[in-house]
Amino acid sequence: MICLRWLQIGVAVFAGTLLSACTEKTAETYQGYVEGEYVYVASPLGGRLDQLTVQRGTIIEDGAPLFALEAEKESAALQQARAQLSAAQAQLSDIKTGRRLPEVQVIEAQLAQAQAQAKQAAIQAERDEKQLAFGGIAEAQRDDSRARAEATAAQVRELTYQIEVARLPNREQQIKAQEAQVTAMRAALEQADWALRQKAVTAAKGGEVVDTLYREGEWVAAGAPVVKLLPPQNVKVRFFVPETKVGAIKKGQPVRLVCDGCAAPVEAVITYIADRTEYTPPVIFSNESRAKLVFMVEAHPQPNETRLLHPGQPVSVHLL
Questions:
Q1: pLDDT digit string, tens, across residues 244-254
Q2: Predicted TM-score of the model (pTM)
Q3: What topology does CATH give the domain 40-70+198-230?
């Protein structure tokens, strides 16, 4: 009787094991690994690394300062560009307003003097005309008086025109040329400001500082990465699905990731399915490979759930 009872228990346990095995087999589970798309942060300009503000392994926010290169040359170029723009703008303003008031006043004084001389010359010419009629002077003296009167009158007209011109702005072509010079100086200022800002680099996206590739005091070539970042949105999981199963999955399908040491499963969403087959990779985190042709599939977890995942870490991917 006791033996029969133990036999019944054994059969029940065996049946439960079979049921569990069947259930696990129906739930599509694949082995994959965590992949990270790193961001290598560099400056387009070279220089000595004066300041490294992050350390390997730290988590930074968007816009956090990363490093700064020496910028004495760029600072001087920015000051020069500002001074040149200010000078060009002042010259443009001067061209538009015409001559300064003291210059106009000098011409006005010259005009007053010329008018007095012209008046005196006109009186003398009229007097000599009368003297010539009575035979009191020679005809040559009368001619000299007449010529002097005409010359002084012409000088009055010239100075009058000079005052009118002095009160007018410069020619339109000169103004346009100076405006173009101001535009060029403003562009040079923007370029100098851009170059200075490139010497202090910040993080476009926050994440983990995976590595720092230079030390303070070292020379950094233009375009050479200084900091290696891993933003959380760049963490993904790759797994391979047999050719006979790929038709049953689709983009946007949720999956559940299980990893060693994870306190709870991590939810993710399929974001990419390869459009061509490939042979089963020689290294794949799986106990058995039953298909020769597989499709690579990628899934992205939520950025706030990637703290438990590390590139290269094996995970189990459960399709939902």
A1: 888 888 999 99
A2: 0.63
A3: OB fold (Dihydrolipoamide Acetyltransferase, E2P) (2.40.50)
